[in-house]
Amino acid sequence: MTNVNGSPIKAATRRGLFEFGVETLEKQGWTVSRILRGGKASLRQISKGSEKRRVSIRTSQDAWIAFPRKRSGDGWVTLDDVDFVVAVSVDDKINPTLACVHMIPADDARARYERAYEARKAAGHTLPVGRGLWLSLYNEEAPDPVSYVGAGMGLAYPPIATLDLAKEGFPQDGEEVDDEVSDDGPGTSAEVPAHEIPLTIPEAKRRLAESLGVPISAIKITIEH
Protein backbone atom coordinates (compact mmCIF):
# COMPACT_ATOMS: atom_id res chain seq x y z
CA MET A 1 0.00 0.00 0.00
CA THR A 2 1.06 3.58 -0.52
CA ASN A 3 3.30 5.00 2.15
CA VAL A 4 1.40 7.92 3.64
CA ASN A 5 4.61 9.89 4.02
CA GLY A 6 5.11 9.75 0.23
CA SER A 7 1.66 11.05 -0.69
CA PRO A 8 1.20 14.83 -0.36
CA ILE A 9 -2.58 14.55 -0.05
CA LYS A 10 -2.42 11.85 2.59
CA ALA A 11 0.34 13.66 4.45
CA ALA A 12 -1.76 16.85 4.52
CA THR A 13 -4.79 14.90 5.74
CA ARG A 14 -2.67 13.31 8.43
CA ARG A 15 -1.48 16.72 9.65
CA GLY A 16 -5.07 17.98 9.60
CA LEU A 17 -6.32 15.02 11.63
CA PHE A 18 -3.55 15.48 14.18
CA GLU A 19 -4.28 19.20 14.53
CA PHE A 20 -8.02 18.49 14.86
CA GLY A 21 -7.17 16.19 17.75
CA VAL A 22 -5.07 18.88 19.43
CA GLU A 23 -7.78 21.53 18.91
CA THR A 24 -10.40 19.19 20.36
CA LEU A 25 -8.37 18.64 23.51
CA GLU A 26 -7.90 22.39 23.89
CA LYS A 27 -11.65 23.00 23.49
CA GLN A 28 -12.20 20.42 26.24
CA GLY A 29 -10.16 22.65 28.53
CA TRP A 30 -6.82 20.86 28.31
CA THR A 31 -3.48 22.58 27.79
CA VAL A 32 -1.56 20.51 25.26
CA SER A 33 2.24 20.50 25.27
CA ARG A 34 5.08 18.45 23.86
CA ILE A 35 6.94 16.12 26.19
CA LEU A 36 10.58 17.19 26.28
CA ARG A 37 12.89 14.33 25.36
CA GLY A 38 9.82 12.15 25.00
CA GLY A 39 11.23 10.61 21.84
CA LYS A 40 7.85 10.07 20.18
CA ALA A 41 6.21 12.73 17.99
CA SER A 42 2.69 11.56 18.86
CA LEU A 43 3.23 11.97 22.61
CA ARG A 44 1.67 14.96 24.34
CA GLN A 45 1.14 16.01 27.92
CA ILE A 46 -2.29 17.43 28.64
CA SER A 47 -3.04 19.37 31.79
CA LYS A 48 -6.12 20.90 33.38
CA GLY A 49 -5.45 22.60 36.69
CA SER A 50 -3.46 20.16 38.80
CA GLU A 51 -4.46 17.19 36.64
CA LYS A 52 -1.82 15.99 34.19
CA ARG A 53 -2.05 13.11 31.75
CA ARG A 54 0.05 11.68 28.93
CA VAL A 55 -1.63 10.91 25.63
CA SER A 56 -0.67 9.48 22.26
CA ILE A 57 -2.49 11.10 19.34
CA ARG A 58 -3.00 8.49 16.60
CA THR A 59 -4.38 9.43 13.20
CA SER A 60 -6.11 7.11 10.75
CA GLN A 61 -7.40 7.48 7.21
CA ASP A 62 -9.08 4.07 7.16
CA ALA A 63 -10.53 3.68 10.70
CA TRP A 64 -7.77 1.32 11.95
CA ILE A 65 -5.01 2.30 14.40
CA ALA A 66 -1.80 0.51 15.32
CA PHE A 67 0.89 0.24 17.95
CA PRO A 68 4.11 -1.76 17.54
CA ARG A 69 5.11 -4.54 19.92
CA LYS A 70 8.24 -3.80 21.97
CA ARG A 71 11.42 -5.53 20.86
CA SER A 72 11.54 -7.26 24.24
CA GLY A 73 8.29 -8.95 23.25
CA ASP A 74 6.56 -7.67 26.37
CA GLY A 75 4.31 -4.64 25.99
CA TRP A 76 3.72 -1.91 23.42
CA VAL A 77 5.81 0.97 22.13
CA THR A 78 4.33 4.33 23.21
CA LEU A 79 1.05 2.76 24.39
CA ASP A 80 2.73 1.64 27.62
CA ASP A 81 3.80 5.24 28.32
CA VAL A 82 0.40 6.96 28.21
CA ASP A 83 -2.85 7.35 30.12
CA PHE A 84 -5.06 7.84 27.07
CA VAL A 85 -5.03 7.21 23.34
CA VAL A 86 -6.55 10.06 21.36
CA ALA A 87 -7.66 8.39 18.12
CA VAL A 88 -8.51 10.79 15.30
CA SER A 89 -10.02 9.02 12.31
CA VAL A 90 -12.23 9.47 9.30
CA ASP A 91 -15.43 7.43 9.39
CA ASP A 92 -14.87 5.66 6.06
CA LYS A 93 -11.79 4.92 3.98
CA ILE A 94 -13.40 5.35 0.55
CA ASN A 95 -16.00 8.09 1.11
CA PRO A 96 -15.22 9.85 4.39
CA THR A 97 -17.85 12.31 5.59
CA LEU A 98 -16.75 12.83 9.20
CA ALA A 99 -13.56 13.06 11.19
CA CYS A 100 -14.00 11.79 14.75
CA VAL A 101 -11.94 12.19 17.91
CA HIS A 102 -12.07 9.43 20.51
CA MET A 103 -10.44 9.52 23.94
CA ILE A 104 -9.66 5.93 24.87
CA PRO A 105 -8.32 4.88 28.29
CA ALA A 106 -4.91 3.33 27.71
CA ASP A 107 -5.61 0.46 30.12
CA ASP A 108 -8.44 -0.75 27.88
CA ALA A 109 -6.39 -0.18 24.73
CA ARG A 110 -3.53 -2.25 26.16
CA ALA A 111 -5.92 -5.07 27.09
CA ARG A 112 -7.38 -5.06 23.57
CA TYR A 113 -3.95 -5.16 21.92
CA GLU A 114 -2.92 -8.05 24.16
CA ARG A 115 -6.07 -9.98 23.21
CA ALA A 116 -5.46 -9.26 19.55
CA TYR A 117 -1.80 -10.26 19.75
CA GLU A 118 -2.53 -13.58 21.45
CA ALA A 119 -5.40 -14.37 19.07
CA ARG A 120 -3.36 -13.69 15.94
CA LYS A 121 -0.39 -15.62 17.27
CA ALA A 122 -2.67 -18.58 18.04
CA ALA A 123 -4.03 -18.34 14.48
CA GLY A 124 -0.53 -18.81 13.09
CA HIS A 125 0.29 -15.22 12.19
CA THR A 126 3.88 -14.04 12.42
CA LEU A 127 3.94 -10.60 14.04
CA PRO A 128 7.31 -8.95 13.30
CA VAL A 129 8.75 -6.94 16.17
CA GLY A 130 8.54 -3.21 15.52
CA ARG A 131 5.66 -3.48 13.05
CA GLY A 132 2.26 -2.11 13.96
CA LEU A 133 -0.58 -4.38 15.03
CA TRP A 134 -3.77 -2.92 13.57
CA LEU A 135 -7.16 -2.74 15.29
CA SER A 136 -10.40 -1.56 13.74
CA LEU A 137 -12.09 1.33 15.52
CA TYR A 138 -15.61 0.81 14.20
CA ASN A 139 -16.08 -2.92 13.71
CA GLU A 140 -17.59 -4.88 16.59
CA GLU A 141 -15.15 -7.12 18.41
CA ALA A 142 -15.56 -10.74 17.33
CA PRO A 143 -13.50 -13.95 17.41
CA ASP A 144 -13.95 -14.49 13.66
CA PRO A 145 -12.26 -13.14 11.64
CA VAL A 146 -9.29 -13.08 13.98
CA SER A 147 -8.48 -9.51 12.88
CA TYR A 148 -11.60 -8.37 14.78
CA VAL A 149 -10.36 -9.56 18.17
CA GLY A 150 -9.78 -6.35 20.16
CA ALA A 151 -11.72 -4.20 17.68
CA GLY A 152 -14.38 -1.60 18.47
CA MET A 153 -12.67 1.07 20.57
CA GLY A 154 -14.43 3.76 18.53
CA LEU A 155 -17.76 2.15 19.42
CA ALA A 156 -16.96 1.69 23.11
CA TYR A 157 -15.80 5.31 23.43
CA PRO A 158 -18.03 7.56 21.29
CA PRO A 159 -16.53 10.67 19.67
CA ILE A 160 -15.86 13.66 21.90
CA ALA A 161 -15.83 15.79 18.72
CA THR A 162 -16.68 15.40 15.04
CA LEU A 163 -15.82 17.43 11.95
CA ASP A 164 -18.24 17.49 9.01
CA LEU A 165 -15.88 17.15 6.07
CA ALA A 166 -18.57 18.24 3.60
CA LYS A 167 -18.88 21.62 5.33
CA GLU A 168 -15.50 22.18 6.95
CA GLY A 169 -11.94 21.45 5.95
CA PHE A 170 -9.18 20.23 8.19
CA PRO A 171 -7.14 22.75 10.20
CA GLN A 172 -4.38 24.06 7.94
CA ASP A 173 -1.67 24.79 10.49
CA GLY A 174 -1.01 21.24 11.59
CA GLU A 175 2.57 20.12 12.18
CA GLU A 176 4.50 17.22 10.70
CA VAL A 177 3.96 14.13 12.80
CA ASP A 178 5.34 10.63 12.87
CA ASP A 179 3.18 8.19 14.79
CA GLU A 180 5.90 5.52 14.75
CA VAL A 181 3.80 3.56 12.22
CA SER A 182 2.46 4.98 8.98
CA ASP A 183 -1.34 4.97 8.80
CA ASP A 184 -1.44 2.69 5.76
CA GLY A 185 -3.89 0.48 7.59
CA PRO A 186 -4.24 -3.27 7.95
CA GLY A 187 -3.12 -5.71 5.34
CA THR A 188 0.45 -4.45 5.13
CA SER A 189 3.48 -6.55 5.95
CA ALA A 190 2.80 -5.94 9.64
CA GLU A 191 1.36 -9.43 9.80
CA VAL A 192 2.62 -12.35 7.76
CA PRO A 193 0.92 -15.74 8.02
CA ALA A 194 3.39 -18.35 9.21
CA HIS A 195 1.70 -20.81 6.87
CA GLU A 196 -1.22 -20.82 4.49
CA ILE A 197 -4.33 -20.40 6.64
CA PRO A 198 -7.71 -21.49 5.19
CA LEU A 199 -9.76 -18.46 4.18
CA THR A 200 -13.08 -18.23 6.01
CA ILE A 201 -16.22 -16.85 4.38
CA PRO A 202 -16.47 -13.92 6.89
CA GLU A 203 -12.84 -12.99 6.16
CA ALA A 204 -13.38 -13.27 2.40
CA LYS A 205 -16.44 -11.01 2.65
CA ARG A 206 -14.49 -8.50 4.74
CA ARG A 207 -11.63 -8.37 2.22
CA LEU A 208 -13.99 -7.99 -0.73
CA ALA A 209 -15.93 -5.24 1.05
CA GLU A 210 -12.71 -3.33 1.80
CA SER A 211 -11.46 -3.73 -1.78
CA LEU A 212 -14.75 -2.64 -3.36
CA GLY A 213 -15.61 0.04 -0.82
CA VAL A 214 -19.02 -1.42 0.05
CA PRO A 215 -20.58 -2.66 3.32
CA ILE A 216 -19.95 -6.28 4.26
CA SER A 217 -23.74 -6.81 4.11
CA ALA A 218 -23.59 -6.11 0.35
CA ILE A 219 -21.26 -9.06 -0.28
CA LYS A 220 -22.97 -12.38 -1.06
CA ILE A 221 -20.90 -15.54 -1.57
CA THR A 222 -22.40 -18.63 -3.18
CA ILE A 223 -20.52 -21.93 -3.11
CA GLU A 224 -21.39 -24.58 -5.70
CA HIS A 225 -20.01 -28.05 -5.20
Distance between the first and last residues' Cα: 35 Å
Proportion of strand residues: 15-25%
Number of domains: 2
SSE-based structural type = alpha+beta
* Outline: globular
Unreliable stretches:
1-6, 192-197
Largest sheet: 6 strands, mixed
CATH class of the largest domain: Alpha Beta
CATH topology title of the largest domain? PvuII Endonuclease, Chain A
Biggest sheet strand order reads: 1-2-3-5-6-9
Name the average pLDDT.
84
Rg calc: 18 Å
Helix content range of the residues, please?
Answer: 10-25%
The arrangement of helices and strands along the chain is HEEEEEEHEEHEEH
CATH architecture grouping of the largest domain: 3-Layer(aba) Sandwich
Number of DSSP strand runs: 10
Number of H- or I-type helical stretches:
4
Task: Describe the protein in words.
Residues 173-183 have a biased composition (Acidic residues). Residues 172-195 are annotated as: Disordered. The chain is of the alpha+beta class. It folds into 2 domains: 4-190, PvuII Endonuclease, Chain A (3-Layer(aba) Sandwich); 195-225, no CATH class. Helix content is 24%, strand content 24%. It has helices at residues 8-27, 106-122, 153-156, 201-212; strands at 31-34, 43-48, 51-60, 64-68, 84-90, 98-105, 125-126, 132-136, 161-164, 192-193. The protein has a 6-stranded mixed beta sheet. A hairpin with a 7-residue loop joins strand 5 and strand 6 (98-105).
